[in-house]
Amino acid sequence: MPYSNKKVLTRFLKWRYRNISNRTFIQIMSLIVGFLAGLVAVTVKNTTYFIESLLKKGIVFSENQLYFILPTIGLTLVYLYVKFIHKEPLQHAVSSIIFSLSKKRGLLKLKDIYTPLITAPLTVGFGGSVGLLGPAVKSGSAVSSNLSRFFHIDAKTRTLLVACASAGAIASIFQSPIAAIIFAVEVFTLDLTMMSMLPLLLASISGVLTSYFFLGNEVLFSFSLSEGFKLEDTAFYVLLGVGTGFASIYFTKMYFAILSLFKKLKSPKYKLLVGGVAIGIMLYAIPPLYGEGFGFINNLLDGDHLKALGTTPFDAFTDNIWVVIALLFGITIFKAIAMTTTIGAGGAGGVFIPTMVMGSALGNVVAKVINNLGLGLSVSESNFTLIGMAGLIAGVIHAPLTAIFLIAEITGGYQLFVPLMITAAISYLITKNALDYTIYTKELAKIGALLSHNKDQMVLGLMEMDDVVEKNFKPVHPKMSLGEMLHQSVSKSKRNLFPVLDDEKKLIGIIVLDDIRPMMFDTELYDTVFVKNLMHAPPEIIFYETDNMKQVMKKFQDSGAWNLPVIKNGKYEGFISKSKMLTAYRRKLINYSQ
């Protein structure tokens, strides 16, 4: 930053500290962040729709044969951008935000603002079967993070403003301000207090107003509720909850299984080629898998399943309702495969909207099966389509309240609150008992970067090992005599613990002052007793790369030790003392709770 600009910023910050309270400034910032996140969401959505509209005529003209090459073209463009401009692998949007909040004090890179705005439209516009919500949230969060850093905002407030950005982006895309707030609380595990509620509310309002300003009263789902909740349908909603619960487990396991297959392909070019061809084949057979899939959902809500399915190789058989049901069930199965293939092949996109598409298809299938069993049963296919979406959202991302309020808000279907609660709760309970972690959180849990509503777990997750490692211990060599050790290390150290290191600085043991106290003043032993005769193994070892702070705390509890050595890259790094760790924990807890 030029000196003159830096001087202006310094003056502004001084003026702000004198004239605007911190609380008021946060509220102002939340409005700005909500607006910018909303603007980002509108931009990514309109850019994608523009690309889709350009390609639509070509798809129709080619009788769907263009589906075979479009995903490969889109993935190639993303690959070229990542290789020559971004220059690092794309990360899952929501997971990377949670990692940033947990381990990087909410700091996101400047290029995280514009990269999702380029890669997501290219991926989705050319047929990638992923959503735009994740990239919009990532870009908005990066705007908030960099704006917070520019105004010298502390890490805790930065976390709140990143959550505000996510609320603003979601409110803008879905025009659902309440669900946006709940998403921020459920997914980013914020404490819902009045201090956090008001900024989230302001950001959400700002985001939705931005959407109205640029898009008018355009809504995602043009649906008006015609049938409310009927008590006699309760059992069917329970059945749908069970179905969406198992579908959520399938969705999550399929996601990790396909990603593991793509990891075996070392070259990004092979991933691109395999993924592009696979997506192209799926799109040709099942056109609704193209892009996000909001058009598919709208057609199902309108009761037009033929339009929802589009032109397929099975058009000659769609007069048979059971063929239609089979095709819709195929979308339920293949949406998860197409989505994960897109991500595994190097595409950019989110998982939230694909869960909605899969849920809508499954809900419609369940309703059609009930209505065509020949038992005289009748349920609303539109209602089941809506509630199926809520069931998948609740199960896949473990966010039942977000699912309930989102579907209720975007459709105006508040009369369906009871069945929404039934289906979402059952789906969530089944999935939560079967899977400890979601697509967002599984990898984060492995490295101890997972945020949690449990304050103890949250604080341990926020702590950094570098903050508690102490390095002022005098090392000794195993070939040192007792006399050398006393003169070169013990006499110069303020600690009562000495790591024994070999020539390569690898830890081979430790010596505690109590071990040598009885012989310290026996000069006859100075040249006859050596360190290798006195050392012993530490009660436990902390591994810098693999142990998180929760595991470190457990090692202290299990070993009963007051100091444990830390190994980094196979070599001795230092010690962590229980007293320093508990002090750091207490400070972090006080800061987090305030």
TrEMBL record:
Keywords: CBS domain, Chloride, Chloride channel, Ion channel, Ion transport, Membrane, Transmembrane, Transmembrane helix, Transport. The lineage of its organism: Bacteria, Pseudomonadati, Bacteroidota, Flavobacteriia, Flavobacteriales. It is found in: Membrane. This is Chloride channel protein. Residues 469-528, 535-593 form the CBS domain. InterPro entries: CBS_dom (IPR000644), CBS_dom_sf (IPR046342), Cl-channel_core (IPR014743), ClC (IPR001807), ClC-type_chloride_channel (IPR050368). SUPFAM superfamilies: CBS-domain pair (SSF54631), Clc chloride channel (SSF81340). Pfam families: CBS (PF00571), Voltage_CLC (PF00654). Its main location: membrane. The keyword Metal-binding does not apply. PANTHER family: CHLORIDE CHANNEL PROTEIN CLC-E. The chain crosses the membrane at residues 20-44, 64-82, 113-137, 157-185, 197-215, 235-258, 270-290, 321-338, 345-366, 386-407, 414-431. It comes from the Bacteria. It is a multi-pass membrane protein.
